[in-house]
Design brief:
heterodimer; A: 249 residues; mainly alpha; 65% helix; B: alpha/beta; four-stranded mixed sheet
Chain lengths: 249, 153
Amino acid sequence: MPASPLFAYALRLGDDALVLGQRLGEWCGNAPALEIDLALANLGLDLLGQATFLLGYAGELEAGGRDADKLAFHRDVMDFTNCLLVEQPNGDFARTLARQFLFSAWRLPLFEALAGSKDEMLAAVAGKAVKETAYHLRFSREWVVRLGDGTEESRARMIDGLDWCWRFVDELFEADAVTEALAGVAPDPASLRPAFDAEVDRTLAEAGLERPPVRRPVVGGREGRHSEHLGHLLAEMQFLPRAYPDAQW
Amino acid sequence: MVSRTIDRATAVRQALAAVMDPEIPVVTVFDLGIVREISADGRRVTITPTYSGCPATAAIEADIRRALATAGLEETQIAVRLDPAWTTDWISAEGREKLHAYGIAPPSPRAAAACPRCGSPDTEEVSAFGSTPCKALWRCRACAEPFDRFKCH
């Protein structure tokens, strides 16, 4: 039986949050300062919470006995439908923050639109997440400005970070059969681009940075075609519940 | 003669009044606005999680379940409601006073927080993220003490 578009949509938004939350967790204990360590862990927690709601909802829609944990820990890499941006390795601190900024600048207008969705559950989850995402955007844009407008070294690193991430931006605004089937429930991805562009331009101007050079966009995450990095992330994230299926806290 | 039986909703309310936030053990689930509703027949409690990923949410639900069971009310249904989203506006006046007395600046839309220790308004934000999702880290320039501030949410 083919999956319903609403299931596929909740799953992909949940996968985005889960994978990025896991990436941010990798900074725990490694961040440049204690405050940053706490901040990145807090961001990761928010995303993990959003993933729990979204994957839990996907499981309900599927009605096949899979809950949020089952979906998170017992699917293989090709069954994940997160965007490619979130699975990219952390790189240095600047690249992590560049990734966070671009993600949050897209995610905020998305959740603002979804908060008015005619699907009650998506609207409720988005209504909660919109507040958290606004905070993530504020935090990450401040770092884009601080590093971009900082020392020669920090500026070069932020330019590199944005440059690395930029090829994964177009995927965020791509429509496909899932979004087309959900008119009125989910916004047309392309409709979010003006808000994203305005945020990027405003922040880069403040940071004294240019837009990264145009690169050939890389897409495919929504269809399960991922970079080699996702498999490694999942191997670490999924090890315990797969090796010890009955493990309990 | 005073009747010794109280109705179920009152009994549920009394049981929940003793459930504290696990991270900030001076405020109850009522002070924080987490308990949204107790049905008139006392058979259903509706709660709203604070932050999507707050690890205390699961602990709070378990504590509520335990408190109800201890009071012999384990048959009570616990419903989780996401919409409308929890906001710090729901923290009661009493809850704000308790936070302040505990050393946490309560949420306020004002840009600067008053130091919960010495009361000085001469304070600064150190980090927008603190020890829990709901708090930011601040410092008082007058008494030099760091303090937590509840974020407006």
